[in-house]
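Pilot study result, target chain (96 residues):
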Amino acid sequence: MHKIDIYYSKVCGLCTEAINYFHKRGITFTAIAIEYDSAIDEFVDSPHTRDMYDRCGEKVEFVPQIFIGDRHIGGWRKMEPLIASGEINQLLPEGG
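Predicted structure:
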């Protein structure tokens, strides 16, 4: 079974979409909070933020950053076509 991690911020509506998608499908995932500082318009430096950057391979400017196993999906807008085409079902655990 593929481990699913979602890096998200509480102020992100698209993060909520991604999280709700997995909840509705009954799929277990790990939600990893990334704090956003609107005063400086960037994510707050933290171990979770640095881990997200490392896994993405670069400093990213948006969330959610979704990992299904080794597959990186950079944002909800990248995940929507995978859902529409059914390709997402090949990445998710059986029964998901």
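One observation from the pilot: Residues 6 and 66 are 5 Å apart (CA to CA). A full batch analysis is planned for the follow-on phase.
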